[in-house]
Amino acid sequence: MRIWLANFEMQERVQGTTDLGLCGLHIAHYMLVLSQHRLPTFLPAILASWTLLREALIARFGVSAEVDNQRLLKDLKR
User: Fold this and answer.
1) In 3D, which of 17, 20, 18 has the Cα closest to residue 5?
2) Where are the domains positioned within the chain?
3) CA atoms within 13 A on the CB side of 48
4) How far apart, in whole angstroms, are the C-alpha atoms of residue 41 and residue 18?
5) CA 5 and chain centroid, separation
6) Strands (E), 1-78
7) N or C, fewer C-beta in 10 Å, the chain?
8) Which residues contact 63 (CB under 8 A, 6 or more apart)?
9) What pLDDT digit, counting tens, does each position of 30-40 carry?
10) 26 DSSP assignment
């Protein structure tokens, strides 16, 4: 999830988005169905804040940063 969110943030910056807080309501269109169904359960304040939304998504669907880094290194070695 961390890697997916980092890629999403990078793409939004490339597109010129300056306030990622505006993405909370629209991010579901780009997520897996399981993740899409979880978004409506978040409080409006979480959806309005990119930082809070990012933390909530990582808490629900993410793995530890160490596991993410190990997977990334493994993929890069291929």
Assistant:
1) 20
2) 1-76
3) 3
4) 26
5) 3
6) none
7) C
8) 1
9) 888 888 888 88
10) T
